[in-house]
Amino acid sequence: MAGKKVIITGVPGVGKTTVINEALKKLRESGIEYQSINFGSFMFEVAKSENFVKDRDQMRTLDRAVQKKLQQQAGQAIAKISGNVLIDTHASVKTPKGYLAGLPEWVLREIMPDIIVLVETDDDQILMRRLTDETRARDKEGSRAISEHQQFNRSIAAAYAMLTGCTIKIVTNADFLLDRSSADLAEVLR
Ligand code: AMP
Ligand code: MG
Predict the structure, then answer these.
(1) Whose CA is nearest to atom 18 of ligand 1?
(2) Are the C-beta atoms of 8 and 168 separated by less than 8 Å?
(3) Which residue minimizes the CA distance to atom 5 of ligand 1?
(4) CB-based contact 5:113 (threshold 8 Å)
(5) Looking at residue 1, what is its pLDDT?
(6) 5-189: which CATH architecture?
């Protein structure tokens, strides 16, 4: 049987990577393996080698045409990977010129995901997580802007479902409930 392609998204700072790692640990205990892939890392490898950026958080301020090119290359490379694949990425990227679709149709048609997961939580929890994350250059924005971004991600996910016939799963990653959110994610990956 062909592997499952699952795309996992959520605004920066929602804790996607943490939920993924915890869910994959749970799945491994029941003998289910997924290859975990970070879409941004594929883009960053190219962007860094071309000297476009020094850190991954600078990519969303690059010229739109450049971001799209990097995105297309990453999509093509990721589409070639077989087996169960979990792709950590963004439903939309907040750029200085507005929201950029993280999965425009030419990327979706390459990957053809079975499921798109939206990791969400309360806007003020995301705000606090960004403020306390020293490892990343997260956007400094208020909870209203975070709310708008989360709403936009739901809307654009509906468009992705229309294009691919994938299902959309919403996983809430609330404070102190990582066990719950990772179990929810693991459940849809089974
Ligand atoms: P992350 O580590 O997931 O926050 O991703 C780092 C950066 O990679 C993001 O801020 C975006 O600039 C870029 N990126 C990741 N996924 C996508 C995507 N699907 N489309 C466009 N840019 C992306
Ligand atoms: Mg991450």
Answers:
(1) 102
(2) no
(3) 40
(4) yes
(5) 55
(6) 3-Layer(aba) Sandwich (3.40)
For 45-55, how does the pLDDT look when each residue is reduced to its tens digit (9 = 90+)? 999 999 999 99
CA angle (77 as vertex; 73, 80 as ends), nearest 5: 145
CA distances from 171 to 3, 59, 167 (A): 22, 26, 13
Task: Give the binding-site residues of ligand 1, using a 6 Å CB cut-off.
Answer: 12, 39-40, 43, 56-57, 59-60, 67, 71, 88-90, 93, 102-103
What are the sequence ranges of the domains in the chain?
5-189
Mutate to test the pocket of ligand 1, among 38, 64, 90 (most ligand atoms within 8 A of CB): 90
Cα(17) to centroid of ligand 2, in Å?
5
Using one digit for the tens of pLDDT, what is the confidence trace for 139-181? 889 999 999 999 999 999 999 999 999 999 999 999 999 999 9
Strands 98-101 and 92-95: antiparallel
